[in-house]
Design goal:
With about 190 residues, this protein is mainly α. It is built from seven helices and no strands. The protein starts with a helix and ends with a helix. This is YggT family protein.
Length: about 190
């Protein structure tokens, strides 16, 4: 019972931090202005871990790859701690378990990124209906537009209603159901 609560706590806190680090990376990737209060919050929450890692992981192509490495390491710690608290026999599994745990961390990070795109798109849709003058609106718009823009070329407007967020939800769910789940099952099958 206590192990289950600890697993929940570790997964929740670890995933929230990994999302913040991924948001920081995506904001840099999509050139979101960092003068926004939400963007400044994300930088403030993640700066303590990203700055030291930049000394080890250099940036390439103008992107802060330390954020991606940090998010992956956090997910690796979450996966390992969850399996350990659940009673997985690491000592009996031997050295072959560590590449699987590293792979599971990659799969969980991809899954987390897809869920983040779904969540940001949902927030964008709600903000467009309710109140579009919040400090969050420009950040959410800039983070979701690279995913929605290509779909707008394919999906026409229906009665002045943009259906591209719905199409993006469906595509994200398919990504989670097909390649991500298949990769996770393949990794778990090798344990």
């Amino acid at each position: 019972m206590i192990a289950g609560a600890l697993i929940f706590l570790i997964q929740t806190l670890g995933n929230l931090f990994a999302v913040a680090v991924l948001l920081r990376f995506l904001m840099q990737l999509f050139r979101v202005p960092f003068r926004n209060p939400f963007a400044q919050f994300v930088v403030a929450v993640t700066d303590f871990a990203v700055r030291p890692l930049r000394r080890v992981v250099p940036g390439f192509f103008g992107l802060d790859w330390a954020c991606v490495v940090l998010a992956w390491l956090v997910e690796f710690a979450v996966v390992t701690a969850s399996y350990w608290l659940d009673g997985f026999p690491f000592a009996l599994a031997g050295g072959k378990v560590w590449p699987v745990m590293l792979g599971l961390a990659v799969v969980r990070l991809i899954s987390l990124a897809v869920y983040m795109v779904i969540g940001l798109t949902l927030v964008r849709a709600v903000l467009s209906w309710v109140h579009s003058n919040t400090p969050l609106t420009p950040v959410v718009y800039e983070l979701t537009e690279p995913f929605l823009r290509p779909l707008r070329r394919i999906v026409p407007m229906v009665g002045q209603v943009d259906l591209t967020p719905l199409v993006l939800f469906i595509l994200c769910q398919l990504v989670l159901m097909l390649p991500v789940l298949a990769l996770e099952r393949a990794l778990l099958g090798s344990l």
